[in-house]
User: Fold these one by one.
Assistant:
Number 1:
Amino acid sequence: MILLDTDHFSVLTDSRHRQHAQLLDKLERVSDDVLIPVVSVEEQLRAWLAQIHRTRNSREQIYPYDRLLRLLETLGEWEVARWTDDAADQLEQLRRARIRIGTQDLKIASIALANDATLLSANLRDFHRIPWNQKVSGTDCRNGPPGAAHNRFLTPFGATQDAC
């Protein structure tokens, strides 16, 4: 399973983005299921609703309403990864481990960990802090046996980056 972080999900919903076609092409070629974390959906909905609310000129609301509509259309085309008890457990573990990244990113990482999923994100700075290997193998992949299973995440638009 591959989860799209909010940065990639926003590219997916914006056909004018310079990397939209490239991302769609790569996603169509993967054999794993590709899902959108419900937390990314929340972030996108909040952003477009806030922009609509801030914009007083009705004509200037056309673009944010169009993007909100495109977001809803895109959601109909993709499966959404749910927030579950397992994800909540993962979040609690990350908080106990004092991982210092934003709450939404912690939640997205928690969904990935709970589903043994690969996370596609451009946010390397924060997601490098997540102990990806704990959920899958329970060992430190730097010191574990050769080839030990561990989660990883993907760097912007598809280059594989081991999480350890």
Number 2:
Amino acid sequence: MNVIFHTLTGIALGSALTSREKPTSMTKKIVTPILGFTLGIISHGLLDVLPHTYPLKSHVDIIFSLVAFALTLLIVKKETIPLFTCCFLGSIFPDMIDLGPEMANQFFNLKLPTIKAKVFPWHLPQYSGSIYTKPSPISNLAHTLIIILSTITIFTNLTKTIRFKRRAAETDETPF
């Protein structure tokens, strides 16, 4: 699955795990980001076993993902940046481990060591959902559902996560 879908899911996880209070307790500062990283890895596996194609070329995919993550960090509350970072890293961690060195070699003409064995089972041919070589309606449906569900999660939790608030009108209107 393209990295942008994992990134979007990681951002949605960060949004869902954000609480309305500032993370002052040990749980909020340490345990929740670790949970976010772990859930990011699990979500990665779940997405990778879905039947899918790769609608974006790798270099475009990686650039879009990094831009989406960077923009997220610019708009979320400062105290949630560690959580969003852990969710993002967890959501792409399996690809960084199993596919990262090969991709770095390809894009940057490096000679990093690579291993044929995969650490994460969903990258093995028998478990991977990467079964289509041409566009597929099932793959398109999976990608669309990922975008819709992630977007709903992000917007449902927007008031908990966004750094900037619009000013209330002079009436008793509450911002957001």
Number 3:
Amino acid sequence: MKKLKIIIYSTAIILNFGVFCDASKILQNEIQRHVVKKGQTLWAISNYYNVPLEEIAEENNLNTASKLRIGQILKIPISRKKIKMDLGIFQWPLNGEIISHFNQKLPDRINKGIDIKPQDSFLVHASKKGIVEFSKALKGYGYTIILNHSQGVNTVYSNLSSSFVKEKEFVEENQPIGKIGKDVRKQEAFLHFEIRKEDVPLNPLHHLP
């Protein structure tokens, strides 16, 4: 039963590139006021507060592409349940260029991690030591690896062409765990990477050196 639960949980992560839970349903929220300043966008404000873009838009009866005006007051749903954000430093899973940011709206999804285009190597490394919770190929998404770092912290590595690790295997920080391949829809090689705490996606850039 536990094995089945892990497979369902992991498959849901990949089919939505991380959208398998709604933080607003998991956590009780309080509202904080934000006064829009020159040059600010919903996406930038979402990243600043680490609150999903769609939640801010819904709270303010906007759509995710709405333009903001200087002085506009937004209601930001902030979690009352404080998730410990001091998770330590994670290492970059590979060297490259970020081509899609956390909470960025894409044609087929809201990004719950970051997408990294490789610079010099297609090898993917463990961002932190942990146990392999999931390592399988999923149709349309390539190989996907999920590492458990204890205390409710997981990292997700997707869009791989191959995996070097097996489930329940212990891996060291910076250990090669797989190799990225081309996205079947975009025909572009990139790694989709997530950091999660208690099933809630966090902005990886807040925890990478």
Number 4:
Amino acid sequence: MPASDARTALIETALADLARVSPSFGARAVARKAGVNHGLIPYYFKDAEGLLLASIEEATAKYLEAFAELMNGRSDPVERQGPALVDTMIDWALTVIRTDPAHFARKRNICSLAADNQNVARYAQKLVASEVAMTSNFIASVRGRKVCTQSDETTAHLLIALFDGIAAQAAIGVAVDTAAVTATVWQMLVLPEGG
């Protein structure tokens, strides 16, 4: 196996382990599942924690790239975009769940692992901060503002929690009432300042 393939296999296998219901992270087990010699872990990543951090960085980059793609070009005021904007957001979340059901599980598990590891905590904080910043900027733009307000940031936190909840429900097969979600999100986006 070429060197770059071994590194990629280790990261992909580690990402799969991060998506398990009860994540446990063992470098030897990851190497075995990836079909590579565990001696390659220190070669590519310094140690098991380095592999874990590289995997989290990869997961974070993929998530933020997908999220940025969703937000790209959506700066018209919310009144002009209407509920179709919210439907697009919901469709995106449900598409991510269908095409990569492990996506939100990885996010949840990264945050769980962060409780025990300061290095993982830094990556988890980066993930959350980037997600909140992008969502806040998006909300400000559709509300017709160039600068985010506290209201935009609060709404961003609520939307992120809502979509993470939808993801958790969809992951276990609970049907999502998209009409109710659309109405709720629409109200959150058009809520007047201080209202």
